[in-house]
Design brief:
The complex is a heterodimer of chains A (188) and B (280). Chain A is mainly α and 188 residues long. Chain A contains 11 helices and no strands. The longest helix of chain A is centred in the middle third of the chain and has 17 residues. The longest helix of chain B has 17 residues. Classes of the chains: A mainly alpha (188), B alpha/beta (280).
Chain lengths: 188, 280
């Protein structure tokens, strides 16, 4: 990057992101198109362009705020920011990295509890059946979040329309799937 | 030639009418379809949000199984699965080290040679050329073609249609007699995986989509993604609450609209399974 003096590698979390994802936060020139196009920036604590700016500063306190933000969890990975970024900065890929790091370092935003529970219940279903088994997933999610009554109204009409499969279609190669989960959860 | 089929989880459960209509249309045009044996979930948003390696390993296993089964081309009707499989293939082609690591995790050979088609690409390749003379009941309705996110983004990976104001579905719907409308929410997000964990956001985002389609006179919304369909259809209560009015325009899969136009019966297309009654 010494050949590119205007976009030098920065230290701290921004540098770490670049090292792992090739996403260069230094390329952002704060045009704001990501925040304008983001369908949920109004529900975020920091809109995407501000996240970029916070990371550019290299200030550890601001980096900590990014990791602990609600923004990284409410991000839908709809890819609109990336599609419209004049510098082609892959913000969704960066968001994935930040989410994984926040989980690893136990720095997840408390408001994101339900969103994270959804992801965890989803992956547990895949781990045990090889697939997203909707009924089992829902039971697991409700246990995690104690949102017992939410969406119960949907059950009878879904049943009536044949949209709920009560018995899961299990994958045959269950040990293969279990092994994938084991190997990918080992941290190097 | 046999076309491989990756249904993904939604098409086996809450969106089974999408699978039914894809298979009904394929049958009507003599497309030989073979499901990938013992496929697994692609990992969806959950995997890439929490674990990057897992989010690559799961789709790679599916692609490996297709290779093993001798399927050189597969159709992936779920736009989200299509995105995950395509992104994995793209990432692993770019990075040999990662490709080796994923092969080691999965313990199956992976070459990355499979051609991945979304549902529009399948229809354009195998159905459109034979469509003339088959349209017996033109779908004469004003329709809002809704592409959502993963059918067109990220463009660097998918290289399909235009990223803003895509046209492929509009062109297909014109061929079966429909009149696509101009509208502003073709590629806006419906709220996708927040449907359960943050339903209010989905009511808002999907509400804007349904509201704009309605305001511009659409009689039906046409989709190619089970998440888009579920959110716009099953979440209509939340959508109507957000909009403060009752909107009852139905949300059809592109294969259902096409199936109706070629005279397939409504039940074989799963139209009775929708929450918002399909009146078109």
């Amino acid at each position: 990057m010494s050949s590119d003096p205007h976009h030098s590698v920065i230290s701290g979390l921004g540098g770490e992101i670049q090292e792992h994802t090739e996403v260069k936060v230094s390329h952002c020139y704060q045009c704001g198109k990501c925040s304008a196009g983001c369908p949920l920036s109004d529900e975020m604590d920091y809109p995407p362009s501000l996240i970029m700016r916070m990371l550019q500063t290299g200030n550890p306190e601001l980096e900590e705020k990014v990791l602990r933000s609600f923004s990284i969890w409410v991000c839908l990975t709809c890819e609109m920011c990336y599609a419209r970024c004049p510098m082609s900065i892959d913000i969704p890929k960066m968001m994935d990295y930040l989410r994984e790091k926040a989980i690893k370092e136990k720095k997840t935003n408390p408001k994101a509890k339900q969103i994270i529970s959804f992801h965890k219940s989803f992956l547990d279903s895949v781990r045990y059946t090889g697939k997203m088994y909707e009924v089992g997933f829902y039971a697991d999610y409700k246990t995690r979040t104690l949102k017992i009554l939410d969406d119960m109204m949907l059950v009878p009409p879904m049943m009536k329309r044949g949209k709920l499969r009560i018995i899961p279609e299990m994958i045959k190669d269950r040990s293969g799937i279990a092994s994938i989960f084991r190997k990918t959860s080992k941290k190097k | 030639m046999t076309l491989g089929f990756y249904p993904g989880c939604s098409l086996k459960g809450s969106s089974r009418e999408y699978a039914e209509s894809v298979l009904a249309v394929a049958k009507a045009f003599d497309i030989q379809i073979q499901e990938i044996k013992d496929w697994n979930c692609c990992g969806a948003t959950a995997a890439h949000s929490l674990n990057r390696e897992l989010s690559l390993a799961l789709p790679a296993r599916v692609l490996s199984l297709a290779e093993k089964q001798g399927l050189t081309e597969i159709v992936v009707p779920c736009a989200a699965c299509y995105g995950r499989l395509s992104s994995t293939q793209y990432e692993l082609a770019k990075n040999p080290e990662l490709k080796a690591r994923v092969a080691e995790i999965n313990g199956i050979e992976y070459n990355g040679t499979t051609t991945i088609l979304n549902v529009i690409q399948m229809l354009d390749k195998y159905v459109t050329p034979k469509l003339e003379g088959r349209v017996v009941k033109p779908f004469e309705h004003k329709v809002a073609c809704y592409y959502g996110c993963y059918l067109v983004r990220p463009h660097e990976v998918l290289n399909f249609d235009r990223v803003e104001e895509p046209q492929s579905m509009d062109s297909l719907m014109t061929k079966v007699g429909a009149t696509p409308i101009d509208w502003a929410f073709k590629t806006e997000c419906c709220g996708a995986s927040l449907s359960i964990s943050r339903t209010s956001s989905v009511g808002k985002l999907s509400g804007k989509i349904v509201g704009d389609a309605f305001d511009r006179g659409a009689e039906a919304i046409i989709v190619a993604c089970p998440m888009c369909q579920s959110n716009l259809d099953m979440r209509r209560k939340e959508i109507n609450e957000y909009l403060g009015k009752k909107i009852d325009i139905p949300v059809l899969y592109v294969t259902q609209a096409l199936g109706l136009a070629i005279g397939l019966d409504r039940k074989s297309l799963g139209l009775q399974r929708h929450f918002v009654k399909v009146t078109v």
